[in-house]
């Protein structure tokens, strides 16, 4: 396998109207950041279009946090049992794993506006139908839920494809990846909260309508930005395997499935430990603490990382530390201690996800950057669904996320894994 270092984020195409970007293989005459120190989040957001693209991307992805909760509430309001409502939410969670790589490949071939608008239309039509008709007819509901999930616009992959075109150097791009990984936590913290508040004050149908509106607004603002309209991926030969061609990519995606499994198992574990300790507040506080620690970990990672890129071995180190962070939670501890200790793996999650994102981008064949992020999102979402499904029958024990994290680290230590490959000179 070719030697891999998470060193440079490959550029795709220049954006009309913007200053030409320097080659990642050239040393700029003036470093954009202080020697030995990477740029801050603020330095990234000061660049033109970055704030618009990031906020639009987060808004457009907010449905991923709103819809599962709104679906459960709507299904219960229509007389369905919790098990049926949960299956509908699980269906919605899995379907983006099917649609994102396809829409990402379309973006790499035809540009970003088409798949963003197409996905937004599917999501708005499906969620609007659910908001108007309810979930009384399960076959109709399942079709709408599947379309709403599979149609999620490729905003995350599109954003990461645009960063090299709107930022001055690879150091800023790496910090932008950390910023994007950190803001993902907002989707899964604010989204459910918005769903509950809207359903309580109005109706669950209004929460579904809110998700549709957020998808439409975010996708429209993102796709009409000048960099998104001008961006084109580099041309490449047609390849049925596409992003999956490099063996290291396939192994990395398998590792990311287990990384997602830790998050899915945590949701169940939080409910189980809350029941065992008769502390209902812990069911919501534990995932919130994990996510808040992720935000903090992302900020610290951006501040402490050097101006040079993390090397491939750092992926394995972070994965091993992430797995070790789950060990203390195996002990019988009081609820406040469980809450505090959950911050350790939470703080490592965003740095690990950031370096994994950089590795995915480095491994992706030229002209496949958006599809590559789609596959990464799919792997994580499949892992979340699998972790949730397995954690329930196993009693919601913290051993499940621990084993998933350990398997993630184990795969990254394999001889053909990107973390195990020697760094290129």
Give structural notes.
The structure is a single chain. The chain has 425 residues and is mainly alpha-helical. Helix content is 69%, strand content 0%. The chain has 18 helices and no strands. α2 packs parallel to α9, α12 runs parallel beside α17 and α13 packs across α16. The radius of gyration is 21 Å and the shape is globular. It starts with 40 loop residues before the first helix and ends in a 13-residue tail after the last helix.
What integer value in Å does the Rg equal? Answer: 21 Å
- Percent of residues in helical segments? 55-70%
Q: What's the mean pLDDT score?
A: 80
The major beta sheet can be summarized as: none
- Counting DSSP E segments of at least 2 residues, the number of strands comes to 0
> Helix/strand/pairing class, anyone?
mainly alpha
Estimate what percentage of residues fall within beta strands: under 5%
pLDDT < 50 stretches: 1-35, 420-425
Can you count the helices?
Answer: 18
Give the SSE order as H and E letters: HHHHHHHHHHHHHHHHHH
Distance between the termini: 15 Å
The backbone outline, from C-alpha atoms, is: globular
Topology, pairings included?
Elements lengths: L40 H5 L4 H12 L1 H15 L4 H13 L1 H15 L2 H21 L4 H13 L4 H12 L3 H32 L2 H20 L2 H5 L16 H30 L5 H23 L8 H12 L10 H7 L1 H21 L5 H23 L7 H14 L13
Helix pairs in contact: 2-8, 2-9, 2-10, 3-4, 3-9, 3-10, 4-7, 5-6, 5-17, 6-7, 6-10, 8-9, 8-17, 9-10, 9-13, 9-16, 12-13, 12-17, 12-18, 13-15, 13-16, 14-16, 14-18
């Amino acid at each position: 396998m070719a030697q891999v270092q998470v060193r440079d984020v490959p550029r795709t195409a220049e954006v009309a109207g913007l200053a030409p970007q320097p080659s990642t293989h050239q040393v700029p005459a003036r470093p954009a950041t202080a020697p030995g120190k990477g740029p801050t989040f603020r330095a990234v957001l000061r660049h033109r279009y970055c704030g618009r693209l990031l906020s639009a991307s987060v808004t457009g992805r907010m449905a991923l946090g709103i819809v599962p909760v709104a679906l459960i509430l709507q299904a219960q309001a229509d007389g369905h049992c919790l098990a049926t409502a949960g299956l509908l939410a699980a269906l919605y969670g899995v379907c983006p794993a099917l649609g994102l790589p396809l829409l990402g490949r379309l973006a790499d071939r035809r540009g970003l506006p088409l798949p963003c608008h197409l996905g937004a239309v599917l999501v708005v039509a499906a969620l609007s139908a659910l908001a108007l008709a309810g979930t009384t007819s399960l076959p109709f509901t399942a079709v709408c839920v599947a379309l709403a999930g599979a149609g999620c616009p490729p905003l995350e992959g599109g954003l990461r494809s645009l960063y090299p075109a709107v930022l001055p150097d690879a150091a800023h791009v790496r910090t932008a990846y950390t910023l994007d990984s950190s803001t993902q936590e907002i989707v899964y913290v604010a989204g459910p909260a918005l769903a509950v508040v809207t359903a309580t004050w109005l109706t669950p149908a209004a929460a579904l309508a809110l998700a549709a509106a957020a998808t439409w607004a975010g996708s429209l603002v993102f796709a009409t930005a000048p960099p998104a309209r001008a961006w084109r991926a580099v041309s490449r030969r047609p390849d049925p395997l596409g992003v999956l061609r490099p063996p290291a990519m396939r192994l990395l995606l398998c590792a990311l499935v287990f990384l997602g499994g830790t998050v899915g198992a945590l949701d169940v574990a939080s409910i189980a430990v809350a029941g065992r300790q008769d502390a209902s507040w812990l069911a919501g506080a534990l995932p919130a603490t994990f996510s808040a620690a992720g935000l903090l970990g992302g900020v610290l990672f951006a501040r402490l990382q050097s101006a040079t890129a993390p090397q491939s071995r750092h992926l394995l180190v972070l994965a091993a530390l992430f797995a070790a962070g789950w060990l203390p939670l195996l002990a019988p501890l009081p609820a406040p201690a469980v809450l505090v200790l959950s911050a350790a793996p939470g703080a490592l999650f965003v740095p690990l996800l950031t370096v994994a994102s950089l590795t995915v981008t480095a491994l992706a064949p030229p002209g496949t950057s958006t599809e590559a992020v789609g596959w990464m999102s799919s792997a994580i979402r499949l892992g979340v669904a699998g972790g949730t499904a397995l954690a329930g029958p196993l009693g919601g024990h913290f051993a499940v996320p621990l084993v998933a994290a350990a398997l993630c680290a184990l795969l990254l230590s394999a001889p053909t894994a990107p973390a195990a490959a020697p760094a290129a000179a």
